Automatic annotation (TrEMBL):
Source organism of this protein record: Dyella nitratireducens
PANTHER family: 4-HYDROXYPHENYLPYRUVATE DIOXYGENASE (PTHR11959:SF1)
InterPro entries assigned: 4OHPhenylPyrv_dOase, Glyas_Bleomycin-R_OHBP_Dase, Glyas_Fos-R_dOase_dom, VOC_core
Stated family: Belongs to the 4HPPD family.
Record has Transmembrane as a keyword: no
PROSITE patterns in the record: VOC
Sorted UniProt keywords: Iron, Repeat
Coiled-coil regions, chain positions: none
The protein's name: VOC domain-containing protein
Domain VOC: 8-136
Cofactors that this protein relies on: Fe cation
Keyword Amino-acid biosynthesis carried by entry: no
Length: 160
């Protein structure tokens, strides 16, 4: 049985209907510094995001760029809110394997970029939650290539 597989919460991805309004709330009301803004291109992967620092983890605010965007589809089905929780792990292969043995299904393979490896679970039908496993070996942020590849795999699986 897998004991304590997660080192920490790496980030929470929160789907929002209006990124600018969300930034104002998180920055001005919650006093979380804005670390960076990003834009991911693509019909289904298109999103604008803002990374906010929450101390030992990050909050990534995400807004779809079109109705076909996975983020927009998520909001349409579930409403705005936490779209996924990313857990940092030490060994992504063994953690993924152990969680799969416990019944967790995955939507993506393990995708690698320099200093960063990631995989997404299928959305849990009980809680509506999707989980990301992330192994960091030097990269503190996010890689555009990984983000695009993750969204492409999620699109193939019709997961959002």
């Amino acid at each position: 049985m897998l004991q304590h597989p997660f080192l920490r919460i790496d980030h929470l991805a929160i789907a929002v209907a209006n990124l600018e309004d969300a930034i104002v709330f998180y920055r001005d009301t919650l006093k979380l510094p804005l670390v960076e803004r990003r834009e991911t291109l693509g019909k289904h992967s298109g999103m604008r995001s803002a990374v906010m620092s929450a101390g030992h983890f990050q909050i990534v605010l995400i807004e779809g760029t079109s109705p076909e965007s996975q983020v927009s589809r998520y909001i349409e089905r579930y409403g705005p809110g936490v779209q996924h929780v990313a857990f940092e792990v030490e060994d992504i292969e063994s953690t993924r394997r152990a969680l799969a043995e416990n019944g967790l299904e995955f939507s993506t393979d393990i995708l690698a970029a320099p200093g960063l490896r990631q995989t997404f679970s299928k959305r849990d039908q009980v809680s509506g939650m999707m989980y990301e496993l992330i192994e960091r070996t030097g990269e503190e942020g996010f890689q555009d290539a990984n983000t695009t590849r993750l969204f492409e795999e999620l699109e193939k699986a019709d997961a959002y």
